[in-house]
Amino acid sequence: xxxxxxxxxxxxxxxxxxxxxxxxxxxxxxxxxxxxxxxxxxxxxxxxxxxxxxxxxxxxxxxxxxxxxxxxxxxxxxxxxxxxxxxxxxxxxxx
Length: 95
Known about the structure:
This protein has 95 residues and is mostly beta strands. It has strands spanning 6-8, 11-14, 19-24, 30-35, 46-49, 51-56, 59-63, 67-72, 76-80, 88-93.
């Protein structure tokens, strides 16, 4: 399920207050669940199997027993990293 708006090749728009929940599996895999806003109580915008390797945008992070939550504080994009593998992603602020 991916209902994120495309922002270019292998790039997707994230809402300014998006929450990205990263569930960590015992085998080292990750599930990224993306919500437009944590307070909206709406279904997730996307669920992606992959690894969030870096966040280059203003954010806070909260850790829990099964992973962590990235709470964005500015407009950003989810970008699939080229050359590393199709399952590696970064979040980068929009200029």
